[in-house]
Write a structure and sequence with these properties.
heterodimer, A: 387 residues, alpha/beta, Rossmann fold, 2 domains, elongated, B: 303 residues, two-stranded antiparallel sheet
């Protein structure tokens, strides 16, 4: 009796040990993306791009690493556009799903805490869309596909000074969002460094706020030449409308968080004619970028926004990292280490959002574009700024 | 000076929404001694109902002009939203009341109903935000350095009219007398031949109907809709109602505007992070000095 039990137990253990060995034919990659919450559009776009990439690789029989083909498996985890949920989603991916790498979170608000979790648990992570320096700072396991705010801030300042002939600026930003706050501060110092004039108003609001009339009244009373709004698209729509209602007639300038089709849906004509800095412009794209946009349009019936393109590039980077690793380990911990080293070895990368070189921190050095929202609600290329 | 007047107008608009929602809390509490925590979400449902009703009226099937659509949307939204409120009362609160459940359980049920409304909305319509159509052509008036829109005037005027109407209903009509009577003694009232269930349903119709109106006006003023839009504003309006003295119509009205003024005033002077800190510290001080709220009376007839 006892021996039967022992044998049964042993079989069980042997079976459970054997499972990872079978699983070694697939490479599990986690996605920590906002499918609900404040910016569901961003999670949706990322997922769409990822599904396209996955179909490409697995349709071709898998990803070839060290002479053997491996299928990819993508696991999408919703972080509800919240900082604390991003940490939970990362932990779930790492501990329960045992993924070997994580793509996302997109927004810096989730990517800064999510990056901390990935780094502490020694899992390579690539954030497609995060521009806040803190996401990758002193975190050898965290990488990104987007340019950084210390670059974006001066791009916005230079463009506004040239285009609007502005002397004074005002800023309204979301103080509980790392992305918005960081970019607002960088913009302020780079505007003041230009010596044209002061930032006359520097007003903040909270993420769930819907009424901005008090802040905008203060801003308008200071008569700025333009208002910089480094905010998520849902708040941009409310801010622009309320500023117009309060009698503001000047231009607005936005940042890369504006670049979603939902901005036009929510903001409508009131956003036409405004400018924002971003990662790429879909209208007038060429080469591989054009191919990607056309395929995406055909499959999902909408133009891919920058985060979709950046997610595509992030997966590209990860695939490059896995190839650099040279072989697939069945032990997720060893595999994670190999992928991290493979990612760190990438010196330059040609993606659909432009080519980039990587600095010591693992951050890409790449060009930004400024787009204008046309009278048809399209994002039209205005100019490109390279470091 | 213009700056101050402008901010007073901003506060009046923002306070109007708190006041309209707080009135709903206070009505139900006044009659049933029930804190209807789902009220903020009924407000949210009202905004969504207004979205679909106006979308339908403006759409190709009916094709009304925006002004006509607005005129029809107001009563339709109020009617449909009060239907939601009455349904909640019927399926969630009344069975518990019949079984004589303690008030605590009814409050928890209300909280759950609110969450159910939020998440069923999320499940059915998805997380993507909706853009509310423009129903009345916006006019921006410049009076000296002060800017005013017709919508702002409409919102403030509505809050005042609704307050006066409810005050009249409660103090001057027979139904109002019955409402006050239930609040006074809910066991003796049926014995007097007053149909207390009908009166309670009427209370929910009033409260939810005006929450629907608030939702419609809110969606017109801040035309981005999301499933959780009613949560925070609902809680804050509840606090406003408590500070005003919950159960008292005047208290809800004054409390709502008070909170609006404090919030806008703090943001005008300090960074926005201090807003809730200051606002609720001030409200706490008021309760500390007057625990029953500004107009509340300890354990007597409410409403």
């Amino acid at each position: 009796m006892r021996s039967t039990l022992t044998r049964l137990l042993l079989t069980c253990i042997a079976l459970s040990l054997a499972v990872p060995a079978f699983a070694a034919d697939t490479i599990k990659i986690g996605f920590n993306i906002p499918l609900t919450g404040d910016i569901p559009e961003v999670g949706e776009g990322s997922k769409n791009a990822a599904e396209m990439y996955l179909a490409d690789i697995n349709g071709a029989g898998g990803l070839e690493v060290g002479g053997k083909k491996y299928m990819l498996e993508f696991i999408y985890m919703d972080n509800e556009s919240k900082a604390e949920s991003a940490v939970n989603a990362a932990l779930k991916l790492i501990e329960q799903e045992e993924v070997v790498a994580i793509i996302g979170p997109n927004s810096s608000k989730q990517a800064v805490p999510g990056g901390g979790t990935a780094n502490d648990n020694r899992v390579p992570m690539i954030s497609p869309w995060s521009t806040n320096p803190d996401t990758t700072k002193d975190r050898p396991w965290v990488f990104r596909a987007a340019f950084l705010d210390p670059f974006q801030g001066p791009v916005v300042a230079d463009f506004a000074a040239k285009k609007f002939g502005a002397k004074t600026a005002a800023v309204i930003f979301d103080i509980s969002n790392d992305y918005s706050k960081g970019l607002a501060e960088i913009f302020k110092s780079s505007w003041e460094a230009k010596g044209l004039g002061p930032v006359v108003a520097f007003e903040s609001h909270g993420t769930k706020d819907q009424d901005f009339s008090a802040q905008l009244t203060t801003i308008i009373a200071d008569k700025p030449d333009f208002i910089f709004v480094p905010d998520n698209y849902n708040q941009v729509a409310l801010i622009v409308q309320q500023a117009r209602d309060l009698g503001y007639k000047g231009p607005f300038m936005g940042s890369d968080a504006w670049g979603t089709p939902d901005l036009i849906k929510l903001c409508g004509e009131q956003c036409y004619g405004q400018y924002f800095s971003t990662h790429y412009a879909a209208a007038g794209a060429k080469g591989a970028t054009k191919v990607f946009i056309d395929r995406y349009m055909k499959k999902y019936g909408a133009e891919p926004a920058d985060y979709a393109a950046l997610t595509w590039d992030s997966i590209g980077l990860l695939v490059e990292g896995i190839k650099n690793a040279g072989k697939v380990e069945s032990n997720p911990r060893k595999m994670r280490k190999a992928i991290r080293d493979g990612l760190a070895a990438i010196k330059s990368f040609d993606g659909i959002t432009g080519s980039s070189k990587f600095d010591k921190e693992g951050d890409p050095i790449k060009c930004a574009v400024v787009v204008k929202i046309s009278d048809e609600g399209k994002f039209v290329f205005e100019e490109s700024v390279c470091p | 000076m213009d700056f101050i007047i402008q901010n007073v107008l901003n506060a009046l608009q923002w306070g109007s929404f708190y006041a309209l929602i707080a009135l709903g809390y206070t009505l139900v509490y006044g009659v049933l001694r029930l804190i209807n925590f789902a009220h903020g979400d009924i407000f949210m449902v009202g905004a969504y109902i207004a979205f679909f009703v106006s979308g339908f009226l403006l759409g190709p099937v009916i094709g009304l002009s925006p002004a006509m659509a607005f005129a029809v949307t107001v009563p339709l939204t109020m009617a449909l939203t009060s239907l939601v409120g009455v349904t909640l009362e019927r399926i969630a609160y009344r069975p518990l009341r019949r079984k004589g459940a303690h008030r605590l359980y009814v409050v928890i049920t209300a909280l759950m109903c609110g969450l159910i409304l939020e998440y069923s909305n999320l499940a059915v319509l998805g997380a993507s935000r909706l853009k509310f159509p423009e129903l009345i052509e916006k006019q921006i008036w410049h009076l000296g350095g002060v800017t005013l829109t017709n919508l702002k005037v409409l919102v403030i005027a509505t809050a005042i009219v609704v307050f006066l109407f409810l005050q009249w209903v409660v103090t001057r009509t027979r139904v109002g007398m019955a409402m006050r009577a239930i609040s006074y003694d809910k066991f003796a009232i049926p014995l007097m031949g007053i149909p207390s269930d009908n009166i309670i349903v009427f209370t929910f119709i009033l409260g939810s109907g005006f929450a629907g109106l608030a939702g419609l006006l809110f969606a017109m003023s801040y035309p981005v809709l999301e499933p959780f839009m009613g949560m925070l504003i609902g809680w804050k309006a509840f606090i406003a109602a408590v500070v005003g003295g919950i159960g008292d119509i005047k208290g809800a009205f004054v409390g709502g505007f008070l909170l609006g003024f404090i919030e806008v005033g703090v943001v005008t002077v300090f960074p926005s992070t201090y807003r809730d800190l200051f606002a609720f510290t001030i409200l706490l001080l008021i309760l500390w000095m007057k625990p029953t709220g500004l107009f509340g009376m300890p354990q007597s007839t409410k409403i």
